[in-house]
Amino acid sequence: MSEKLKVGVMDITGCNGCVLSVAFNEDEVLDIFNLIDVQEYRFVSDPAGEKPQFDVVLMEGLVASPRDIELLKDIRARTKVLVALGTCAHTGCIPAYRKWTPKENLAHLQYDKFDDIKDVDPTPQDAHVKVDAVIPGCPPNRREILEVIKGLVLGKPYKPYTMPVCVECRRNGNFCLLDLNKPCLGAITVGGCFAICVNAGLECWGCRGQTADANLPTFVKMLEDKGFKREFIEERMRTFVGLKIPALKEVMAE
Amino acid sequence: MTKSITLEDITKIEGHAVLVLSGSDGKIEDCYLRAIEGSRYFEGLLVGRRYDEAYWISSRI
Description:
The complex is a heterodimer of chains A (254) and B (61).
Chain A: E1 5-11, H1 17-23, H2 29-35, E2 36-41, E3 54-60, H3 66-78, E4 79-85, H4 87-91, H5 103-107, E5 133-135, H6 142-154, H7 165-171, H8 196-199, H9 216-225, H10 230-241, H11 247-253
Chain B: E1 2-7, E2 17-24, E3 27-35, H1 42-45, H2 54-58
């Protein structure tokens, strides 16, 4: 290999959990750093130089302030490939749920005393710039991040997982939480997470986004038959991926 | 003579912040950290949710 891939791991508004997930590959991290040239990774070290050019940038976070838009556009102009890292980058995650929260719940939290904190509508990255690939999940699976980096180094694009969470969940031998009357969204959610939540006995909240063939009307009806209220189902489905499921509105209107 | 040091977007922390220090004769008189990240309103998003949903949401702060 002639030249190493120039990589940046960056973030805009978010919890830095996705950026941390990259570093969680503790056993492989030295091998990765031998393969790629990390130009900027503010969470673990100072940047190598002023405004470097990148081949790949893994970008965490959603757009929630004018500064985020500025930063995102600047990075997009300096990189060949922009990978949205995590659910915030992909769908806006929980902060984007603000769209469905009553204004009076938020009013007392407006920090208008400080001039330098300004709000914009919480939006995923692809609402502002072109995103070349997505690593979903809140937090993203560290193995998947490895696979994506591997694919980029080898020049073979990583093929994202498209099956629902249930496939891996049943393979893990879990008891179905829907049978226990828990509102698990695994059946309509893209897997690849090894059903980590259900393995721990917790229901899936759908953080990785809905599958292309998710049958929403039937799924909503099934949850209703189990005794869950429409408002609750709507709230649950929107918490992580609300901005990416416009179809839900029509389903709920029926 | 008052001197001031500003560290723009400091590294190795969770989030984005600017550290501003000022003082004179080797003594710091004023020091503050300014968060420059967008607001996420987690406190407001939790209002009205079920108690067993709170830890799912607040763990994403």
